[in-house]
Amino acid sequence: MAKLTTEELLDQFKELTLLELSEFVKAFEETFEVTAAAPVAVAAAGAPAAAAEAAEEQDEFDVILESAGDKKIQVIKVVREVVSGLGLKEAKDLVEGAPKAILEKVAKDAAEAAKEKLVAAGATISVK
Description:
Blueprint: H1 6-14, H2 18-32, H3 37-57, E1 61-67, H4 72-82, H5 88-96, E2 100-106, H6 108-120, E3 124-127
Helix pairs in contact: 4-5
């Protein structure tokens, strides 16, 4: 096998996916009984940035009714107001079946508005 230069090795690494590169580093560490501390630190530093990007990209939220609280009738009225086209029986079933998603894949402002109305009526709500 011909000996590769540093630049040729780097070119080969550039073609690998992160998963393949991670597997290579593990195999390299096992073969030569060394620890690649610096690459691990770089990978760990990149993880929070990736998590922050995922959080910023979220533009659809679910409004989940955790419990109706003491004022179930008021919560049912607000559920009917928030969820269009819902009859009294359907709203009652939804409230009694808590925890349940009331709104799914809505914009952040719509989710926050629904949460405020439902909390004001006495319900326990979570937005995911």
